[in-house]
Amino acid sequence: MAKVLKNLRFFIHTFGCQMNENDSERIAGILTRAGAQKSNGLEESEIIIINTCAVREKSEEKLYSYLGRLASLKVRKKVIIGVVGCVAQLYRLKLLEKKPFIDFVLGPDNYDKLPQILSDDLGEKFISTTWCRKWHEVPPEVILRENSVSAYVPIMEGCNNFCSYCIVPFTRGREKYRPLRNIIHEIRFLAKEGFKEIQLLGQNVNSYVDPETGKNFSTLLREVNRVDGIKWVRFITSHPKNLTFDIAQAMKETEKTCHQLHLPLQSGSSSVLKRMNREYTKEEFLEKVRFLREFMPEINLSTDIIVGFPGETEKEFRETLAILKEIRFANIFSFRYSPRPLTAASRVENDVPFEEKKRRLIEVQQLQKELQLGKHKTFIGQVMRALCMGKSKKDHQLFSGRNEGYQVVNFRSSKAQEKLIGQFVNVLITGCGPYSLYGEERDSC
Fold this sequence. Notes:
There is one protein chain. By secondary structure, the chain is α/β, with parallel strands linked by helices. Helices cover 34% and strands 22% of the residues. It is built from 14 helices and 19 strands. The strands form 5 sheets. Strands 2-1-3-4-5-6 form a 6-stranded parallel beta sheet, sandwiched between helices. A 5-stranded mixed β-barrel has the order 15-16-17-19-18. β15 and β16 form a beta hairpin.
């Protein structure tokens, strides 16, 4: 490819989930292959790209606040500013009307257009938010990864479920699946590059079907497990209604698949789940947890919780608190409900006042904090295997990693950075907080 962007520097600011982070790595790789160079900040860049998330109202608010700061930069220097991702897909022309200093808007299926539009003279605003049913492959050697130990590997994109609160089908489109052979090719490349862990990505990974062979997600896990070099395999996100015995069995039988799973519950009330169009009941979710723990007694489960969904009564909210106590998740991500455009729930009157939603969120988070701290205390005195991800900038003997259950493990070691980062270590757990464990390295694994 011709170096059409030679001598230009770019900066990417990312809002949102792991899928957005992976998209930003792909964008960075596309721009680098076209000759541009990644910069360390706004002031030294000729190209600024904001990769956006529309899942929650707060993400949009952060975006517009960030764009407000960029308006003055545009006055001071010559710079191209683009907004990409889910908000770009959702609002298109409205973004340019609201923030006229934006030069281009691209939806998630249009990142391959970046070198061309940036090499042209952007005398006019450029918008491209078209959908494509074909998977856009970016060669694995092109992707500019932020982490040298753990890598994201997308396997599918989009969602067909239309949960009543969720905007994903409107910003990421219907489900499309990446060919299995391309997934395995990327993982083999990552193994040769020295990566120890991969995270399979998608809005609903356990609905995956190879478009070329028809192989399902449990088969994919088994084939990924055969790739030499990779030590740990994780995946996110799973929809409870698509979690099967076969997937649980594949997790148990494949030694590289971590016994850790993010399984979004959203509410502990079956009546709320029905209004959310989640297609499972509280009892069915509990049954999934039961067979997961039957297959893998030590499995770490995390989840998502939404409080203040339209019509949520105090009794329904208390059901959520009760199921948190019953399941005892290792971690949760909890949010106040906010209506998203185009969704079914946005057309329903939200009769839960803001202050009530705020109270419920605080109560959920306080309960989970207590549950996590109690669980973490049981690890004190144990020796735990962790994958070292990095070191403290302030203390050269303090390192950070994650255990198989994806819990943060901070530990002390007198070894040099190059001997630890990217390596598995045994850590004696000597203390904890609600959000992390800490201890001392015993020896390398």
